[in-house]
Design brief:
By secondary structure, the chain is of the alpha/beta class. It has two domains: 8-207, 3-Layer(aba) Sandwich (Rossmann fold); 227-318, 2-Layer Sandwich (formyl-coa transferase, domain 3). 39% of the residues lie in helices and 15% in strands. The chain contains 18 helices and twelve strands. A seven-stranded mixed beta sheet has the order 3-2-1-4-5-6-12, with helices on both faces. A three-stranded antiparallel beta sheet has the order 7-8-9, with helices on both faces. Helix 2 links the parallel strand 2 and strand 3 (68-72). It is globular and about 80 Å long. The model has no long low-confidence stretch (mean pLDDT 92).
Length: 396
Amino acid sequence: MGPLHGIKILGFTHFAQAPAAMQLLADMGADVINIERPGTGDFNRTTLVDPEVLGGEAPYFLALNRNKRSLTLDMKHPKVKEIVTKLVQEADVLISNFRPGVLEKLGFGFEAAKEINPKIIYAEAVGYGSTGPYADLPGQDFLAQCMGGYTTIVGPEGPPLSGGTFLVDLYSAAMLANGIQAALINVMRGGGAQRVETNLLSSALHLQSHEFVYYLNTGDPPKRPEGYSAQAHSVAPYGIYQTKDGYIGISVVPLHKVALFEELVGVTGLQELMKDTRACYDNRNAVYPIVASGMVKQDTAYWLEKFQAEDIWCAKVNDYEEVVADPQVIHNNIIQTVKHPTAGEIKLIACPIYFSETPAEIRLAPPMLGEHTAEILGEIGYSATEIDALQAEGLF
């Protein structure tokens, strides 16, 4: 039995960030129940399915959902609330990566959940922060790579490139799992319910702590080496496109909006090439230059306004200077200044896990070598005389 045996987790999840977090906890022994929509379930159940391989099961869903039990419920049915209420009463943790406000509308926001279960850990995996200027925008790994500056450090010098995997999703998932476990320990010590949140944007910056701390404290932006990286399973028009004044990332165009997208971009030929998800994958190399030919005709701000109004998923590609000045990054307070004994004031990427009752904080600057040796030895019972003797003997 894993270390989390006896912990019960209730999930309202799909895609990658929250499912990956739940899988980590499930692998450690937690009993994980994920509520899925009847008939369709998790989006990843239908992603890149080949009926002749794996019995028609989706590899992406298999990758993130072991050690779980699946429960299908129509959350809009009037009798479901009683079922979910009972599940929340028995759960230790509730996890969701729905857009902010969705569970509140269903009657299971944090305030409602903690009335049902005063010790519930209410964990949310969101796009850019549950509050702030981007709270209502669709959150997705690729878009966070764009907003968080990551696409400007991938591959050779030249146009921005996406990472070769959904690294921000999985990194943020690990942060969420870590935060959940910390919150559970707080309950065991007598604490009560609290929200735990991670978002892709803060996690993207935290993932780049080496590069960002170097840039923040030297002013020298990263210089990319030779090489190439791209997401192997991208589905058109997923990619980075040059605009009149910069670059924009486009990740999702709903199939029922392909004709509208074609009209907005001012091109032709996309509807046949993007008639279904498989076609978007098979024809992606033909789609990209068509889309690119239209994107260069307008500024990035123009495209952001047009696409976001139609729920076409997109993001401005930021370099590090733009990331630091981004209003959502500033709102999230992910970049913080601390004093170092020799370096003076330095800027660091803070913890990307947000707790409502036990907030994380930077208490100590990065230590000098051996800075706390005597302090720690004293805490475990050594006297000052004994510590001096140990030092004289060359133990530290």
